[in-house]
Task: structure prediction
Amino acid sequence: MYNLLIDKMKVVNSDPVEYYFYIDDSWKSMNNLIGKNINFIWSGNVFCTCGKKLKKFYRQNFCYECFWNSPQASPSIFKPELCQAHLGVEERDLEWEKKFQLQPHVVYFSVSSGLKVGVTRKNSIETRWIDQGAISGIILAETPNRYLAGKLEVHLKKYFADKTSWTKMLKGDIINVDLIKKKKEVLELVDKEFKSYMIEKNEIKKINFPLKNLPKKIKSISLDKQNIINEKLVGIKGQYLIFESDFVFNVRRHKGYKVEFSIS
Ligand SMILES: [Zn+2]
Result:
């Protein structure tokens, strides 16, 4: 029996992707548990990133104070085009925002359920694609900060989707696309101000997840509905654990849930 404070699984992009939970001071492989029964027992408590213990979160896995005051929950996290650290303007915590926003960002296409456009920090691009459950991705542009990447994304969202259907992603019900062809379309669409940020090199990253059979039906399972989960793990995709019963467990949705974790 282990104590596990659920957080996004750490990922390593090998073939297939490797997943890890941080349990008892070390990273434990989840891939090794495929084929085994895993057991979560939830105590009924959740923990905000600030350390506060709660019965439930206020919104989005944050307590009330953090949701309204933490830079990690600020509007520009969800809308990068609202970033202002490059102007020296504080949103919630300028020092934190400078560190986070003033670093190279990329605008990318990925294929999770279909084509989508997105933004992330350059050094976390592969992690982002894996977390989405994308089977492939290509970098379109690199900018020196988050604001410019956000502005370019807003422009591209007029022409390309920016959402994933998580049920289609998990079922493997995917509309495949020619990423290089789509990237060429982008070059025609971008304004002059963004031309110099476009990346000429066309490198398509392919991602292979540890799962043999895709679930046919998708039934979501959560600790709010049942505080004990005991299911046979058959695969992992994105940040979802997939069980033999076709139940899927959204790990990110349970960030901050403290559980007793065991394997049988
Ligand atoms: Zn908090």
In short: The CA atoms of residues 222 and 249 lie 7 Å apart. Residues 48, 50, 52, 62-63, 65-66 surround zinc ion (CB under 6 Å). The chain is about 20% helix and 30% strand.
